[in-house]
Structures are given as C-alpha cells and as structure tokens.
Amino acid sequence: MSINEILYNIQDLSVEFHTRVGILGAVDHASLDIRRGEVLGLVGESGCGKSTLGKALMRMIEEPGKITSGKLLFDNIDILALDDSRMRELRGSRISMVFQDPMTSLNPVQRVVDHITEAIQVHQSYVTDKEARARAANLVDRLGISHDRLDDYPHHLSGGMRQRVMIGLALALRADLVIADEATTSLDVIVEAQFLDLLRELRNEFDLTILLITHNMGIVAELADRVAVMYAGRLVELAEVNQLFSNPKHPYTEGLLRAVPNIQLDEGELYKMAGSPPDLVRPPSGCRFHPRCPKVMEICSQVDPIFKSIAPNRMVNCWLYQEVPDEKLWVGGSTQ
Amino acid sequence: MAMTNTELAQNGSINQMIEDVGLLRRIWRGRLWYGTEWYITVFGGLILVTVTIVTLLAPILSPYDPNDFAGSQFIPPGGGPQVLLTRSGESNRVTESYLNEQLVGVQRNKNGTNIAIELELDYLRYQTQSEQIEALQNQEVDSILVDERDLDAIIADFPQLEIAADGIGPSFTLGTDNLGRDILSRLIWGARTVLGVAILSALLSSVVGISLGLISGFVSGPFDRVASLTMDSIYSFPGLLLAIAMAAMLGPGLLNVAIAISVIYIPTFFRVVRGQVLSIKEELHVEAARSLGAKPFSILFRYIFPLVIPSVVVVFSLNVADAILTEAGLSFIGLGLPPDVPDWGYDLSKGHSFLVAGHWWMITFPGVLITIVAMGFSLLGEGLSEILNPRLVKS
Fold first, then answer.
1. Could you give the CA distance from residue A135 to residue A141 in angstroms, rounded to a whole number?
2. pTM score, two decimals?
3. How many angstroms separate the CA of residue A49 from the nearest CA in chain B?
4. ipTM of the shown complex
C-alpha cells in the first residue's frame, strides 16, 4: 500500500448555505487529495469552512446547505452519485467521524455497549448481539477503557473516556478514513495528549487515514503528515508539515504561524493579523485574503489566484507565486 | 475473619444484584437518589393503585346500585335511617301488622317518602316538620316518620312523643343525591368511567400526537408546516368547545366521548414532542448516529424518541387529569355519557346546583376524588419522568 495512493479525491468542491441574508459560500471550489495512510491536517480559523468541508466528505451537509459543485471520489466511488441507502452503508463502515464535543456526541440514554453494537450491527446485521458485545469489549479494552464500563451510560464517563468511545465507534468497522472534527477541542491538555497518543497508535495499528480538522497548530505539528490551510472557504496552502512550519508561503499561513505563541522566540507581543475574517455572504473580490494581506498587490483585489502547485507536494493559492496575467485582461474591475 | 470475608462476599453479590436493576428495582432504588421526596412518587402510585383496585372491585365494594333510588333525597353523609314517632303511650299499638292500617305522616322531600312506599304504608305528606308534628298531636295521623338526626331536637321540644321503632330504612355513608341515589356507590362505579374515559382519551391523543410530532419535527418541510398549522388551529380553540363539537358530532357513548376529548389534547403532545425533536435532532449525538450510517427510522426511535419520553410522561399525566375535568364538562352539558352511566363529572355538575341549598356533600366528594386522582397522576408522572431519565441516576 503506497503512501501515495489517493484515498479521497476532492475536486472543485463548493458548499453553499442559502440563508436569509443571501447565499453563503462556506466552501469555495476546494480541491484536495487525501492519501491512504496519511494524517492530513486541515487548519484555519473559526468559520472558515473546515468543518463544512469535513461534513461534505460524508455528504452530511444539512439544509439549508447544499453541495453545489464538484466531484467527490472516495476510493473511486463517486460519493455525490450514490443513492441515500448506499451512502448510509458507506458512513461508519468506510468513512467515519469523531466530533468536537464528546460530552454531547453520545446518546445520553444509551449504554456504551449499545452504541458500539449498534455501529456494528447497522452495517453487519448478521452479527449476533453476543458477538457484537464481545467485539465491543475488545475494542474498549484496546482503547484503554475497562470493559466492565460497557454497561455504563455516557454520563458515567469522563470527557476523555467519551472521546475514546467515539473513536471506538469510528473504528468499530475499521473505517478507512476517520474525520476528526475538532476532536480534542473540548479536552484539557493532558487528556488531549493522551488522546493524540492513542490516535497515533491506532493509526499505526489499523493503518488509518485521518483527516484532522483543527485550529490548533500544535496538534497539527504533532500528528499530521501534510497540512492544508483554509481561509474564508478556500484552501490557501497545502504542504508537508515540516515545510509548512519552516517555510510558510501564503501570507495568511505566515500570519497564522506567527500568531501561535512560541516559547523559544521571545517576542514581546503576539502577532495580530489586521482585520477580521470576511463575511462569506459578500466575500471580497479577487483573493479573499487581500483586505488583510500585508503583501497585497493591485491584482489581488481584481482576480482570483489559482490553487496551484509550486513545488512537489506544495500548493499555494496566491499571486505572489504565480504569473500575473497581462494587465489588459483585468484592469478596470473585471474579475475575469 | 472468615466470617467477615463471607459477609463481604455476600455484600458484594448483593451490590451486584442491585446493579442489575430492572424498572421496578430502579423505582425502589429511586428512594435513594430521589432525596427526601421519594415518597411523593410512591404516594402518587399508591393513590392510583388504590383507585384502580376500587375500580376493579366496584361490584363488591359498592353498597347500592349506582342508579338505584335507594334512599330519600339529600340525606347527608352518615344519615338515612328513619324513626317512627307516636303520641306517648301509643307506641305499643305500632306493630308490623297494624302499621298498615295507620296513617303515617311524612315530610315532603325530606323524611323518607320512599320508605313509606316501601313499607306499603298509608301516608300523608306535609310541607314542614312542625305541620307534621301538629297533625300527629291533632290525631290526624297515627305516627310520623322523622329523620334520626332530627330526633333529639323533636323529643326535646315535644316530650309527649315517643319512639315506636327506629333504624327503619338504609343508611348512607356519604349521603344521597337529589334523586336519592347513594353517593358512595356512584363514586365507586364512577371511578370506572372516569379512569376509563380519561386514560383512553389520553392514550388516543398521545398515540396520534406523539407520532405526528415525531414525524413532523424529524422530516420538517411542507409536512411539518401543514401539521403545525393544523395543530395550532386545534389548539387555538377553547378546549371544551371543541370537545362539545366533536361529542355532538359523534354522539354519546364511552368511546365517542374519549375520542372527542382526545382531539383537544393531540396538539399538546404534538407541540411538546415536535419542539423536543427539533432541538434533539440538532444535537451532536444524532449527527454522530448519522455519521455511523444509522437509518433515519432508527435515529428517530433510538436516538430521539427516548429523550422525548420524560416530557411526554409529564404531559400525559397532566392531560389525564385535565381530561377528567373536560369529561365532567361534557357531562354537564349533556353531551357526555348516557345518563345511566355513573360519572364523577356528572355528579359534580349536578351537585353544584344544590350547593346553595346547603347540600354540600353532593359536590364535595366527587370534587375531592377528582382532585386526588388528578394529583395522583401528576405525582406519579413527575416521579416516573425522573426515574426513567438515566441522566439523573446517582451512582
């Protein structure tokens, strides 16, 4: 199984929400490959569309949201063309998700064991209750929860334990791709560290592919192989984790990294990016980052740059790294 | 030491047994975590169990037929038996065989008209007691029938009268109503009607209301809009008015009354359930279930419905209590049950018109019972909602 085998191919994905104030483009023409066996970090500030992207990968965008364009190929299965029942079969068995808040992501009136057995039996209805229970016991043992906690209700468990149960649900059927949507956000640092260790172990053991959605650069640095950076619904940079941290290309990534507190650099005050994230109902013209960009050029407000490969394993969405087209073509406010 | 170990082992197994709790055991355990108020649930339960037993044993427990004109009108609680008074010295004339030839005075509307008929006596009716006594003294009648309760006062005023026979006729623990029917028997038999109609109507409305609410909240869209609008229009009617319209349309009968009443309460279930579903379906655990590939049906019944139950139980108990009153209202208007069906609501509305005349017992006993049963349902409902909710279990 080569690391370069593409597990999930996202082409030109757009997700729009039809709200009362207008159409909100939460994900705008995003293209991305997820390779089998890797941990891909997806970072960006709140509201930039990373969770929406994650949900779109499972086709779990709810009304008023809609996937308006693009192609989703998971293991060569066209996700958007599947009918609902086939899609349901895929969810949980091939792609699964770990949610942000472990406190509320388990059914409060179901025992732990019922969660896991249901996850198993939804997809493998031939498994008997007894077998499913045995598998659940193995699974929670593996996740570091004593199997006599199986009959507990979620409120008996701590946040860390619940998140492990959530991971257990994701792993119950050996899903190929686990989407961890801010999975550690509500855990404290110690539990978070344990959780990340567990995730790393599981990844090696089960050969998982993980899409790690987070806004915590530390977690990305610790776990991810590659990182995609999102800003205002667009992917702005994609790089291997070391390259991204040592040599960020996009001005937004640069700003994002400078805004992370660093114990080694003794800066007096933390870097603060000017401005605030744009209103996605009426995004800025051209490059969406241009109103805040310290390196803004004339073309930036007029024409969209392209998310383009500038080096192997390196893609940036910025005019700084691509040839600016002839002035005649864009001067005068035309965005074409 | 060995002793202690055995004890420990025993304790361990007992604890284990307590851990394997079923519903009954959990209710029993409820007293541990329900704090000092656990007895409230038990109390509510006891009330309902008692009422249910009384309902089932009605033929054995009730002293009279509920529709029988068993005694005279308006006999107060504990009253009933009559006393036969004669002029002094003449009491020995009053024997059973001789009684028929005597003229007995009875007081209109009060002193046992029915007993005189029952004993096949020749009797004269008088408007007031003093007229009656005067007639006795004037030798117009040979003896008079008076209520046992009035006896002391009459003897005190007219020492020349003497008792020929007492304890004639039946006694009534809770008195009789305006037609001389035994109130106790009517209450015992009425419990059947009341519980039957109230529970049946609450069941009907909960089945319809809960399923509509679940579907409506879950699927949203046009179905939700139509269903909500319909329910809101039903809800905007004054409840009794709607029940009257329904009852008038369906005609009398126990099932029809239950259906008429249930229509009023469908929206309460619908609104509560729909609102809960709307908020619960946004919860993360529902989304997590979807991400596991659970089917919509299973999401609705395994992830949403159990969380709705506690509020439904409370609504149910409150609606049962309310349905009792609505049923009483329908009976009052004459659209309720057929007149030969004993019914607390009917007794209550009849009793209300005689309260001014001082006959407090006709309205008090059905009223108290309605309150107690309604309270029983509320207490049990609240208690159960806490017990059924595992989030509240202390461990």
1. 10
2. 0.73
3. 18
4. 0.80
